[in-house]
Amino acid sequence: MNFNTRCTPARSWPESAHRGAEARNGPAGVLPQRKKNGDVKTASKRRQRPAAPPRRSGARSRPTRERILDAAERLFAQRGFHGVSIRDITGAADVDVALANYHFGSKQGLLEAVVLRRAEDLNSERLARLDAATADARGQPPQLEEIIDAFTHPLLDRSARGGSGWKSYFALIAEINNSPEFGGVLMTRTFDPVVQRFIEAIRRALPGCDERDLYWAYHFLSGALTLTFAETGRIDKLSGGVCKASDLDSVHERLVPFCAAGFRALCSRSAPRARRPPRRKMKR
After folding, report:
1. Residue 51 maps to a domain
2. Would you place residue 47 in the very low, low, confident or very high pLDDT band (cuts 50, 70, 90)?
3. What is the pLDDT of residues 100-143, one digit of tens each?
4. Which of 255, 268, 258 is nearest to 206 (CA)?
5. Most distant CA atoms of the chain, gap in Å
6. 40: left (phi over 0), alpha (psi -120 to 50) or beta
7. Same domain for 83 and 149?
8. 197 and 239, same domain (yes or no)
């Protein structure tokens, strides 16, 4: 408030009361008119309350929290975590900066919420596919290819046909998985419980596999997925256009047998082999 501004003196009570009476009964000197049915009709009619404006449709009608998450997901995928400010995100979402702080607390909290939002849906389908493969095996370990397919298919299918939101999400996951700053913490907290379920299923499918070979084989599978989701176009140029980084159906067709062969090759080195009978000493 500017205290240098001269204040307007308030109206005296009689004047205020007089104006209120005019508002109810009409201006002074104007007699009320009587309708035929006996009701009194004043010369000044009450103003009708304007109708409520129609609700907005389109992007702004969506919940504020979802708009912020969508904008953050897209910008983080395009520029990286450190290349985007909260103001950039709220500007893209067309919301006030204070709302991002209210919903997420910080930019780090916003990043974690972006990752978790789609991870819940993704992990649920992965586990459902793994449970279905286990049930079909009827007490036996599922085939290795079925386990790997249950792990990779939901990702590749959503990236290929899930729309721009899923495409941005997987590009962001690829970036996080390659980041020493976030990969070891955020990926561990979000995905490791599900990953451990799959590793246990592979352990049963490949009994006797050395633990080091088992985890290194998964590490190579994760790296193949990360490079696939990045869609850098490197394979397009390397192959002279024969292969397309965006052709995720071709990726999935080849990724499962490739990774299954890698698991088997590594684990075969440490699998128990039949012991040979000891050599007999030659008699002299």
Report:
1. no
2. low
3. 999 999 999 999 999 999 999 999 999 999 999 999 999 999 99
4. 268
5. 146
6. beta
7. no
8. yes
Q: State the CATH number of the domain containing residue 86.
A: 1.10.10.60
Is position 172 within any domain? yes
Query: What's the pLDDT at 226?
Result: 87
CATH number for position 242: 1.10.357.10
DSSP 100: H
Match 């939002």 to its residue by tokens: 117
Indicate whether 172 and 82 sit together in one domain: no
Structure tokens at 145: 């290819």
128/262 same-domain check: yes
Residue 59 pLDDT greater than 70, yes or no: no
pLDDT at 154 over 50: yes
Q: What DSSP character marks residue 187? A: I
Picking from 184, 249, 272, 274, the residue whose alpha carbon sits closest to that of residue 222 is 184
Residues 79 and 220 in one domain: no
pTM of this structure: 0.71
> What are the structure tokens assigned to 139, written together?
């007490």
Q: What ranges in 139-182 are assigned the alpha helix state H? A: 144-161, 164-177
- Return the pLDDT at 13: 42
C-alpha neighbours within 13 Å on the C-beta side of residue 221: 30
Average pLDDT over the chain, rounded to whole? Answer: 81
Q: Is there a contact between 205 and 260 (Cβ–Cβ < 8 Å)?
A: no
Are 148 and 81 in a shared domain?
A: no
Q: In the chain, how many domains are there?
A: 2
Note whether 62 and 165 are within 8 A (CB).
no
